[in-house]
Amino acid sequence: MTGDRDQPPIEDPRRVLARYGFEAKKAWGQNFLRDASVLSRIASAARATAEDVVVEIGAGLGALTGALLRAEPPPARILAIERDPDMLAVLAGELGGGSRVEIVAADAAHFDFAAAARASGRPLIVVGNLPYQIASALVLALVDAGRRGAIARAIVMVQREMAQRIIAPPGSRVYGRLTVAITQHAEAKILFHVRPGSFHPAPAVTSSVLSLVFRAAPLAPVRDAALFEEVVKQAFATRRKMLRRALAARFGEEGAAAALAASGVAGTKRAEELSVADFARLADALAGAPAGR
After folding, report:
1. Taking 70 as the threshold, does the pLDDT of residue 292 lie above it?
2. DSSP 8-class letter at 193
3. Residues 6 or more apart from 189 whose CB is under 8 A from it?
4. CA angle (24 as vertex; 136, 124 as ends), nearest 5
5. Which residue from 59, 66, 67, 69 is spatially nearest to 30, judged by alpha carbons?
6. What's the confidence (pLDDT) of residue 96?
7. Residue among 32, 25, 30 at smallest CA distance from 11
8. Which of 4, 64, 77, 243 could form a disulfide with 40 if both were Cys (CB 3.0 to 4.6 A apart)?
């Protein structure tokens, strides 16, 4: 038996909230999943084994935590991260006492994934329904931990438009700095979309469940990772400008022209036309490394 098959339907979030005298907080971006099939699909996509430790971002009312526990096999341990004191009280009431669940009062944006991975003896699996207003920062925090080997993969729900930006190909109007930063360190894929009616309260937008599988090494090796990030940032800072002008503002006209020539990237191109490998060649040229790969 896998997922929520043969399990009772998930309790309506409104009933759970009412039991504790709480309401969803709009200011916190709280939209609670109430669709059992979606919860089951997310838990299945995590592909956790009996040896894995799963970190759940924004455990909320514990619905996804429960879906993970009902998986066959369930993970060895779930670290249920939550920063809202009200939700921590709910989690303690709904999940307290379970040997596989540790409720962690923390802000996921500042959680030490590396320390948790060391304590677990293996890379973590991360799941979560990310609040829209801080989703970009959380995803970048996951990428940073993933590139350091602390996270094997993450299954997260974000706004559909953000998911489409993350997987956009070069040349797309939504391809940008976020796309490059994530693609360099992870293979990103949209698994499925989730309608607004699957939540309480229903958001005004469609959500997407995104898979991030972290690479053992960057997609495009670079001599200086910080410089690579700076080049990408500068190129997209004025994305409608041609590269020779966008880069000149930070690296000088002569330095930008020399790097473009050495890397074989046309200065008349714009940032959204460059692949991750193009940005890597540019960064290496600016660092004085051979441009050939």
Report:
1. no
2. E
3. 167, 210, 211, 213
4. 45
5. 59
6. 75
7. 32
8. 4
State the virtual CA torsion across 129, 130, 136, 138 in degrees, nearest 10: -100
> How many Cβ atoms are within 10 Å of 187's Cβ, its own excluded?
14
pLDDT at 268 over 70: yes
Place of tokens 């009280």: 89
d(CA 4, CA 247): 52
The tokens of 93 are what? 């009431």
Distances (CA, A) of 74 to 48, 51, 53, 77: 7, 9, 10, 8
- Burial of 216 (C-beta count, 10 Å sphere; 0-12/13-18/19+): exposed
SS3 158: strand
- What residue has token string 């958001």? 203
Phi, psi dihedrals of residue 96, rounded to the nearest 5°: -55, 140
Task: Characterise 210 by phi-psi region: left (phi > 0), alpha (psi -120 to 50), beta (else).
Answer: beta
Quote the CA–CA distance of 99 and 142 in Å, as a whole number: 26
Place of tokens 């797309």: 172
**Nearest alpha carbon to residue 71 among 138, 117, 14, 4:** 4
- On whether the CB atoms of residues 131 and 29 are closer than 8 A, the answer is yes
Structural domains of the chain sorted by starting position, each given as residue range(s) with its CATH number in brackets: 13-214 (3.40.50.150), 225-286 (1.10.8.100)
Percent of the chain as helix, strand, coil, to the nearest 5: 45, 20, 35
247-267 pLDDT, tens digit per residue, is 999 999 999 999 999 999 999
Nearest to 212 by CA among 189, 195, 243, 244: 189
**Residue where the block lists tokens 């039991």:** 19
